[in-house]
């Protein structure tokens, strides 16, 4: 990474490695990496290796050390990027190689990391366990008496509602120490979403309100605490032109047709930019990506991914190339 001249990413990676060393969390990150690889194999098998479905409806396509140290997931792409993806070269063993299958633009990643989080604690797995996922993924698995006081079982689902079972260590686990750290999904790029969705995700992962700094970033430009959904999605179009955010007209050409769209800045739908989401346990990854109101029941609403689809469609209509700035065009 330093060879490519990306010194900021290099510094961030060094900082994260120092963080893992401070909390003795390298084993935990390895456990999560193993989980993602095994879940990917399960979802690949249940979809007959339909990797596009795994990306769009499951846990996503796992990568390793792609831009940041550690595991990450490709969980959505734009339609153009989806067509450009080389699905045939994706594999289930060499996760570091999977990044080469995707184009540079139009790919949404969720990096799995950790951050200190005052007031919340996580108990890591002891060295005797190599993954959170129950070996063999036996949904009927019951803890043996020797482990009943050391672990709870967390039940979740994968794609096609395939059941999953995870270990959840308690503080009395041999070698288990509760530390003020939470897992964290860092979204690249950040997602513009309605404030209502932000609050619902906050409730899903068990944090207080959408104003929690771990789930909310002020805005794409950093100068708005809240903005309307339309304002966030059109800021790049209007900022380049130096035009105030008022009612504007946009024109898109499709073959021999010209379609006009009118944007109104008076929307009363508040929005935020979601940059990172804390999670208490790896079992929450799929519910967050699919944003299941009814978790842990197997009904997923795909709202987070639907927001990305809506954002992409909206920006295809309202962007710097379609903005009509001449008075005669308005």
From TrEMBL:
Residues 4-318 form the Mediator complex subunit Med1 domain. Keywords: Activator, Nucleus, Transcription, Transcription regulation. Its main location: nucleus. It is found in: Nucleus. One of its GO terms (biological process) is positive regulation of transcription by RNA polymerase II. The keyword Transcription applies. Component of the Mediator complex, a coactivator involved in the regulated transcription of nearly all RNA polymerase II-dependent genes. Mediator functions as a bridge to convey information from gene-specific regulatory proteins to the basal RNA polymerase II transcription machinery. Mediator is recruited to promoters by direct interactions with regulatory proteins and serves as a scaffold for the assembly of a functional preinitiation complex with RNA polymerase II and the general transcription factors. Belongs to the Mediator complex subunit 1 family. This is Mediator of RNA polymerase II transcription subunit 1. It comes from Blyttiomyces helicus.
């Amino acid at each position: 990474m330093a060879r490519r001249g990306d010194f900021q990413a290099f510094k961030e990676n060094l900082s994260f490695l120092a963080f893992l060393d401070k909390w003795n969390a390298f084993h935990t990150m390895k456990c999560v990496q193993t989980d993602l690889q095994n879940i990917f194999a399960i979802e690949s098998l249940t979809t007959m290796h339909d990797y596009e479905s795994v990306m769009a409806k499951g846990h996503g396509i796992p990568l390793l050390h792609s831009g940041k140290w550690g595991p990450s997931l490709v969980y959505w792409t734009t339609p153009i990027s989806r067509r450009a993806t080389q699905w045939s070269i994706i594999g289930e063993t060499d996760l570091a190689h999977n990044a080469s299958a995707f184009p540079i633009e139009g790919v949404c990643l969720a990096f799995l990391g950790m951050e200190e989080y005052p007031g919340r604690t996580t108990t890591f797995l002891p060295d005797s366990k190599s993954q959170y996922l129950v070996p063999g993924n036996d949904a009927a698995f019951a803890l043996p008496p020797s482990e009943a006081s050391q672990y709870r079982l967390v039940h979740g689902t994968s794609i096609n509602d395939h059941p999953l079972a995870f270990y959840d260590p308690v503080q009395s686990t041999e070698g288990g120490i509760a530390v003020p750290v939470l897992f964290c999904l860092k979204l690249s790029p950040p997602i513009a979403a309605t404030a209502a969705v932000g609050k619902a995700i906050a409730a899903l992962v068990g944090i207080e309100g959408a104003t929690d700094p771990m789930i909310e970033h002020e805005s794409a430009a950093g100068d708005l605490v809240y903005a309307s959904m339309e304002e966030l999605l059109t800021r790049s179009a209007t900022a380049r032109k130096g035009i105030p955010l008022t009612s504007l007209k946009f024109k898109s050409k499709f073959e021999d047709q010209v379609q006009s769209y009118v944007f109104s800045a008076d929307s009363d739908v508040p929005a935020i930019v979601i940059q990172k989401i804390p999670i208490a346990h790896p079992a929450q990854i799929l519910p967050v990506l699919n944003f299941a109101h009814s978790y842990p029941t197997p009904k997923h609403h795909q709202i987070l991914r639907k927001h990305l689809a809506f954002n992409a469609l909206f920006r295809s209509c309202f962007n710097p190339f379609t903005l009509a700035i001449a008075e005669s065009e308005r």
